[in-house]
Amino acid sequence: MELTLPPKVTERAFARLAEIGAAAQGKALRVAVEGGGCSGFQYLIELDEPAEDDLVLEGAGGERVVVDPVSLPFLADATIDFADELIGARFVIDNPNATASCGCGTSFSI
């Protein structure tokens, strides 16, 4: 079985989760991959309750990011960050597994 590196979460992403009070609500940031989008796969990013079989990445303040087992291989060694720019604020994913992505950054191909 091939060893895969889990995704990494930046301090900026954990800080944003703390700002919105996700942990206090019992929620985590779910990052998943599903079929669709203009490049074949798309990211699903939402606040959700962790499931029993999720990989849980936890920040120092108790903030959590969760990834389901099916999405994990697509997100191996990816970096989950938060960007606050003139065009808007959003969670972003730098995915070394993606061979192509769309202009909006929400869909990709492998």
UniProtKB/TrEMBL annotation:
GO molecular function, one term: iron ion binding
GO BP annotation list: iron-sulfur cluster assembly
Coiled-coil segments on the chain, per record: none
UniProt cross-references to InterPro entries, sorted A to Z: ATAP (IPR016092), ATAP_core_dom (IPR000361), FeS_cluster_insertion_CS (IPR017870), HesB-like_dom_sf (IPR035903)
Domain Core residue range list: 8-105
Name listed for the protein in its UniProt record: Iron-sulfur cluster assembly accessory protein
Gene source species: Meinhardsimonia xiamenensis
